[in-house]
Design brief:
By secondary structure, this protein is of the alpha+beta class. The protein is built from three helices and nine strands; from the N terminus they run αααβββββββββ. The protein has helices at about 1-65, 65-90, 95-165, and strands spanning about 170-175, 190-200, 210-215, 230-235, 235-240, 245-250, 255-260, 270-275, 280-290. A four-stranded antiparallel beta sheet has the order 6-3-8-9, with no helix packed on it. A hairpin with a 2-residue loop joins β4 and β5 (about 235-240). α1 packs parallel to α3 (about 95-165). The protein is rod-shaped, with a radius of gyration of 55 Å.
Amino acid sequence: MEKNKKLTIIIAALVVIVAGTAFFAFNEMRKNQEMTELFAIEKQEMENEYSTFATQYDELQIQINNDSLREKLETEKLKTQRLLEELRQVKSSNAAEIMRLKKELKTVRAVLRSYVIQIDSLNRVNAALQEENKEVKSKYSAATAQISTLSKEKKSLNEKVSLAAQLDATNIRVETLNKRGRETSRVSRVKKIAVSFTIVKNITAETGNKTVYVRIAKPNNEILTKSSGNTFAYENRNISYSIKKYIEYTGEEQEVTVYWDVEEYLPSGTYHIYLFADGNMIGEGSFSMK
């Protein structure tokens, strides 16, 4: 009886021990399962971070023109991609490796933050320089426009002065004379054409010897001339003249008369007179013959 009682106690103790061991083993297995699931979740989060960091390095490279800095960013990006690949190969149950890669991730995050701050600072400096450059360009454009305006005003003033200094011929009169010196309008009887005009007073014009050229144009616009060599310069070319007259200009009003001896056939119609001096046309008129 005593022996059965001891056996019962031993069996009961064994049952308790087995039950306790089973409970402990089950509890540890459950904890390990929970840890594995936790590491799996953390591993996925780390993969997402590594992938995001690699993308951010690409975006930072686009924002800069500094080749040296771009190479450093490329190096860090490749390192991040390598760690991401290592993480993808690690099993969720490998706690030690996951912890190592987690520490590496912390370093990658810190390095990326330092580059973001550096590039942000460079971008602010570049923006300030661009704004300053824009302001300088604006001032240069304004100065250039002002210079251009002054140049145009000066040119306009010079043109006005030059125009004011030109001689001016008015009161142009033409007499068509026969062989007796009497005026006639019959073209067949005309032997001499007398052209008279007044050079007006101009105190701004240069005084001294002047050459006045007279062009007489027939109704067909052909210029009367005694020689093909009778030309003068006008607007970058040489043109024919009919009569050349030397005068002494004093700045005061002056009467001038020139004559054309008719030695050729003249048609009836309207003729035009053009007067030139100092490279400028100073007057024009017309007359008719029947």
